[in-house]
Amino acid sequence: MARSGAGELANVDKLLITGGTALDGTIDVSGAKNATLPILAATLLASEPVTVSNVPQLKDVATTITLLQSMGVQVTFDEKLNVEVDATAVNNRCAPYELVKTMRASILVLGPLVARFGEADVSLPGGCAIGARPVNLHVQGLQAMGAHVVVENGFIRARADRLQGTHIVFDTVTVTGTENLMMAAVLADGETVLENAAREPEITDLANFLQQMGAKISGAGTSTIRIEGVDSLAGTQYKVLPDRIECGTYLVAAAMTGGRIRLNHAAPENLEAVILKLQEAGALVEYGDDWIALDMQGKRPQAVDIRTSPYPGFPTDMQAQFCAMNAMSSGVGTVTETIFENRFQHVLELQRMGADIQIEGNMAVCRGVEKLTAAPVMATDLRASAGLILAGLAAEGETLVDRIYHVDRGYERIEEKLHQLVAQIKRVPG
Ligand code: EPZ
C-alpha cells in the first residue's frame, strides 16, 4: 500500500469512468462541508451539549470529529446520523500535527479554544496543492484581541486571560479567518467589529448557529460583522445548510454531458453567480425554494469567461469544474483565478485528455475541443478531482482518476449519486 505525505496509509482507490452518457435524474444535495467544519469547531464554545444535523459523511468531517475527541469532547451519533457533541469537559487544548496536516481547516479550533479556555496549541497548517495558504490574519486578529501568540516549532501557541473586543480590518478577505475571529469574539469582553469580512453563506450559517447558542452577532453575510461578547453559550440543535459547491458541481456535470438533472435540498440563492454562468453557457436552469433543475437539451455548452472572487462573486471552488466545461465547449473561454496562486493543477491533467488550454499568469485560456479523450489522470486537490471526474463523464472512453482520497474529503457518496444520474462510474481498488 502506498504511503501518503500524511504518513498514514493512503486510500489508493481509483475511479473508473466510462464517458458519453448524458446525466439524467434527481439527487439530494448534502449538508455543506465548509459550514459543518466551523460549526463543529464552534461546539467547543458551548457549556452544554449541542446536536448538529444534515452533517455530510465526509473524510474532513470525520477528521474534525477525531480532533474534537482528542481534546476530550464527547461525540456521538443518533439513529439519523445527527452529531451530538458535548464539549463541557475539554481536557486537552492541542490540535496535533498528525491531524492538522491532513486537514488545514483544523485551524478553526484556534479561536474557540482561546475564547473558552484561554489557551490553544494548534499545529501550523502547511500549504497545500493550491497555494501557500498562510494564516497570518488569524494570528494577527487574536493578537489584536489581546492574546499572546507565539508561532514556534510548527505550532501556534496562544494564551489569553480573556479576549478583549476590538476593531479588526482584514487585509485580505479570508473565509476561515473571519470564522475563527467571529468565534473568538463571541465570548470576548466587549464588542468586536470585523471589517472587510468574508460574506460566504457558510459564515452566515455559522453565525446563525452561534446566535442560537446565545451569541450576539449582527451583519454576518455583509463585509462588516459586529459581535457583542457574552459570558457563556448554551446548547442547541442546528441543521447545516446545503452544500452549494457540491450542488454546482453536479449542475456542471449535467451541462457537460448534455443531460438533465434536478437537485433537491438545495439552496439556489447561494449559487447565483454559478447559475448565471451556466445559463450563459446555454443551459436551461429553473429553481424553487429548495431545488434546482438544469436541462442542457443534448446541446454542447458555449464557452464562458470566469473570474473568481470572494462571495457573492464567482466561487474559486467552482473554478476547476468550469475549466473542464470550457475544455469541451464551443468557442474560447477564459478562467481567471484571483484567490489562490496555484489553483490550475487540474489544467495539466485536462491537457492529457486533449484539452487545448494555455495558462497565462493567473488566467487559463480554454479553446474548446469537440470531444475530450479518456486518459489516466491524477487528482491533486479536492476540486481539481471534481473537475477531472466531470471531464471523464464527458470524454470518449474510460478515464481512470487516481488519488481519489481527495474526492472523498468533500463529496458525499459521489459514485452513488452519479449512479442515480445514470453515469457509468465505479471505484476500483488501487
Ligand atoms: C476557505 O478556505 C474554504 N475552506 C476553501 O475551500 C475556499 O477555497 C476558500 O475559503 C476561498 O473561498 C473552508 O472553508 C474549510 P481564505 P480558507 O482564507 O479560509 C489568503 C474547498 O475546496 N489568506 O478565504 O483557507 C489566502 O492565501 C476549500 O472546500 C492570507 O493571506 O481561504 C488566499 O489567497 C479549498 N492570510 C485568500 O486569503 C490568512 O491569514 C483567501 O483564503 C488567510 C488567508
Mind explaining what this structure looks like?
With 430 residues, the chain is α/β, with parallel strands linked by helices. It contains 13 helices and 24 strands. The chain has helices at 33-42, 59-70, 97-100, 110-117, 136-144, 175-185, 201-212, 244-256, 272-280, 319-327, 345-352, 382-394, 414-420, and strands at residues 14-18, 24-28, 50-53, 74-77, 83-86, 94-95, 119-123, 148-152, 155-159, 167-169, 191-195, 216-218, 224-228, 237-239, 260-264, 284-287, 291-295, 306-307, 332-336, 356-360, 363-367, 376-378, 398-402, 424-428. The strands form 6 sheets. Strands 22-23-1-24 form a 4-stranded mixed beta sheet. Strands 2-15-17-16 form a 4-stranded mixed beta sheet, covered by helices on one side. Helix 4 packs parallel to helix 6. The structure holds ligand EPZ. Residues 33-34, 37, 105, 131, 133-138, 172, 174-177, 198, 316-317, 339-340, 382-383, 410 line the site of ligand EPZ.
Strand content: 15-25%
Low-confidence stretches: 1-9
Average pLDDT, rounded to a whole number, is: 95
Structural class: alpha/beta
Total helical segments: 13
Distance between the termini: 8 Å
- Ligand list: ligand EPZ
Number of strands: 24
Specify the helix fraction band: 25-40%
Strands ordered across the widest β-sheet:
22-23-1-24
Largest sheet: 4 strands, mixed
**What is the 3D form?**
globular
Radius of gyration over alpha carbons?
21 Å
Please supply descriptive tags for the structure shown above:
430 residues; alpha/beta; four-stranded mixed beta sheet; 24 strands; disordered N terminus; binds ligand EPZ
